[in-house]
Amino acid sequence: MKTSNNGTDISHNVQISVDNKADLVVAIDVTSNPADQGQLSNMAIKSKEELKVAELTVLADKGYWNGEELKKCEENNITTIVSSPEEHGTIGYKKSDFKYNKEKDYYVCPMGKILPRTGNKEKRYKNTKVCKECPNRNKCTKNKTGKSLVVGQNEEYLERAKQRQKENMELYKQRQMIVEHVFGTIKRNLGYTYLLLRGNEKVKGESFMHFLIYNIKRVCNIKKTKDIIEAIKAKEKEKTAKNIVVKIFFSNFFEERGAVGSDPYN
After folding, report:
1. Based on the structure, what is the number of domains in the chain?
2. pTM value?
């Protein structure tokens, strides 16, 4: 896998999600892709299914910023608060300073001039004539033909995500406190600083064991041992009751059809 120093290494990208109430690891995945950009919806949906909730709010750093992923999350009733990458350009003339008119499909520049859509296949907005006559052109762009805004197909999802992050900065600041300490505990306190196995599936199994141990230790810190034992016993009784129901159902099923032979569930 490619690493951050432009080299390669035998390594894996371990993804986790952590709940903000009990600090327990909710979902885990392993990929050989060093980038996190394609993992937001994957981990968010896994977490939502694991928690069995109708809606979910997820926090993620700018490595997960991706229009398609944000769209998938919205479609699955997941609210994302994701840090957006820093915009390039001069202050006051960045892309976010150009206001979009959705009804008439054009942008208004900081000088109040209209940039109509010029591209057919791609959404491109520019106004060469206006830019040539603009006194602040050098602050806005170095392009000889003037400012050109290219808008992706998921721009509306990106814009909504930017606004959500602005409105929820205090909540977003909790991200590091929620997830980073889990990796620190796994590596420093438990001593799992490297992986013993190779291959995604084996590494996934090994990672599940690491985080299972973390979760067990975490639960032991939250609950009394007596309460944990009682909860396990209750779960076992529930399982036994379900197994009895299944056995009765299949016994009746075979009897009704005149099946011979021993009960396969005994």
Report:
1. 3
2. 0.78
